[in-house]
Design a protein that fits this description.
globular, four-stranded mixed β-sheet, Dipeptide-binding Protein, domain 3, D-Maltodextrin-Binding Protein, domain 2, alpha+beta, 2 domains, about 500 residues, about 30% helix
């Protein structure tokens, strides 16, 4: 009866949450179905997007979610990532890499112009990437970049200190031209225009791709605060917003809307303190890992806004091999067997950031799972500053962690010796070698290199993957069709239309 009594509170919570779980991609949120009158009203309102004029509009430095949503309509990159995080060429016509993987030469497309008619050259591409390297938002992508140079009118050369076979996946950043007036011009399908107090995205004449656009002019509705955004969407003043529905301080909308989820590199996982304490023991790590019921966490605690993962790579990626991660699948029997070999002398200190109700619920659920196997767990839910301080001090046994991985799914910062996010202190020569081999692997060898790395991590369990989060595009009921959003572009493919 010990296991049953320990699990009853968690099961009750799961049942309660399951009753209000929204359905999947492209589906409406729970609530009343739109009436014919509501649908007619929605159709009469012009499709408009939110815009924060007072927030930064810098193509690579802006941190405002609404302004970032507009960027792919104004700017293009050398590449863009598709829905499986694979780089597709845009402004790049072709590229080559040296045999040692340290020198990459990218040839840009000819005939591309910025919105004022200025031809695109490698100089603007180099300047844009150098600015991103010097900034904060994308700096981690350039950790191994030694130089970025325009070596010809349309030739861009990037030199690395260590090889990265997936470099193109990191170059989906906006390429822009900064004018003397401090404006940032792009090569994308729209241009930002202003008439008195009205802001509009206006379709460009002579856009090099020549695709038919969903709407010639897209009005922008100015916002100042989050409350303005919520009110404008709930009253149908704007037609589309992007959000993280399970994020810290997630914004709540009350209107009837549709949800278009997309995969991200936003990774949730257990991090073990491998320097000292109980979780320095491999048996303990493996036992706790087998007690992670990802299906319940994904379905009930995160309202299906995540994808279960036993590997530290998105299941949407072709690198994901379910058979490798099977050794970490949820198993009560394996959890009991492994943890029974361990003699516990004190409670496990399980650290979680209190500012996310989703994470605190997940941490409590996991603790109850492990307690069902006779393990005493002390969940310590603390604010962000204390959480970070305790991670840096190693004052925990395990924690529920979150990291937004770079699109090449490089884990060096998380698991490499001395990695910036390696708070668990994992240090293993084989891991370091496998990480380096994975980074260096080109397209043909990448799957094998990933498989070797993930197999080793599954066997050693320095971390335990739980899931990758979805983020969402919300649109007014029946206002938009055909969206195929990606992590970096809510309007990917320009196949959408306004009803």
């Amino acid at each position: 009866m010990k296991r049953l009594s320990a699990l009853l509170p968690a099961l009750a919570l799961l049942l309660a949450l399951a009753a209000c779980t929204p359905s999947g991609e492209g589906s409406e949120t729970p609530g009343p179905t739109a009436s014919p009158q509501e649908s007619q009203q929605a159709a009469e309102v012009p499709f408009s997007l939110p815009f924060y004029p007072s927030a930064s509009l810098h193509p690579t430095e802006s941190a405002n979610r609404s302004n970032l949503t507009l960027m792919p309509l104004l700017y293009e990159g050398l590449f863009q990532l598709d829905q499986s995080f694979q780089p597709q060429p845009v402004l790049c016509q072709s590229y080559t890499a040296s045999e040692d993987g340290l020198t990459w030469v990218f040839t840009l497309r000819a005939g591309v112009t910025f919105s004022d008619g200025t031809p695109l050259t490698a100089r603007e591409a180099a300047d844009s990437l150098l600015a991103a390297q010097a900034g904060q938002r994308y700096a981690s992508r350039f950790s191994s970049v030694v130089s970025i140079e325009a070596t010809g009118e349309l030739e861009l050369t990037v030199t690395l200190s260590s090889p990265n076979g997936a470099l193109p996946a990191l170059l989906d950043l906006p390429i822009y031209l900064e004018t003397e007036a401090g404006q940032y011009l792009g090569t994308g399908p729209y241009v930002l225009t202003r008439t008195e107090d009205a802001w509009t995205l206006t379709a460009r004449e002579g856009w090099w791709q020549g695709l038919e656009l969903p709407q010639e002019n897209i009005p922008l509705t100015a916002m100042e605060q989050t409350e303005d955004l919520v009110h404008a969407f709930d009253t149908r003043e704007i037609g589309l917003v992007t959000t993280d529905l399970t994020g810290t301080g997630a914004v709540g909308f009350s209107s009837t809307y549709e949800v278009w989820d997309y995969d991200t590199t936003d990774f949730l996982y257990l991090m073990f303190n491998t320097r000292s304490g109980p979780c320095a023991d491999l048996t303990v790590r493996l036992g706790l890992s087998r007690g992670v019921d990802r299906t319940s966490i994904a379905t009930s605690l995160f309202s299906r806004r995540v994808t279960e993962a036993t590997l530290p790579v998105s299941p949407a990626s072709p690198l994901y091999d379910e058979s490798i991660g099977a050794a970490l699948n949820y198993s009560v029997e394996e959890m009991d067997l492994l943890l029974s070999r361990w003699e516990q002398t004190r409670p496990l200190v399980f650290l979680v950031n209190s500012e996310s109700s989703f994470k605190t619920s997940a941490a409590q659920f996991l603790a109850e799972q492990w307690e069902g196997a006779g393990v005493e767990v002390q969940v310590e839910s603390v604010g962000w500053e204390e959480y970070l301080s305790r991670l840096e001090d190693g004052d925990f046994d395990l924690c529920l962690a979150e990291a937004v991985l770079t699109p090449d799914f490089d884990l060096t910062a998380l698991l490499g010796t001395g990695g910036a996010l390696n708070y668990g202190g994992w240090s293993d020569a084989r891991t370091d070698n496998l990480l380096a081999a994975f980074r260096a692997a080109g397209t043909d060898a990448r799957a094998d290199a990933a498989g070797a790395l993930y197999t080793h991590l599954t066997e050693q369990a320095p971390i335990t993957p739980i899931c990758f989060k979805h983020h969402s595009v919300l649109t007014q009921w029946r206002a938009v069709t055909g969206l195929t959003p990606t992590q970096s572009n809510a309007f990917y493919g320009l196949n959408w239309s306004v009803s």
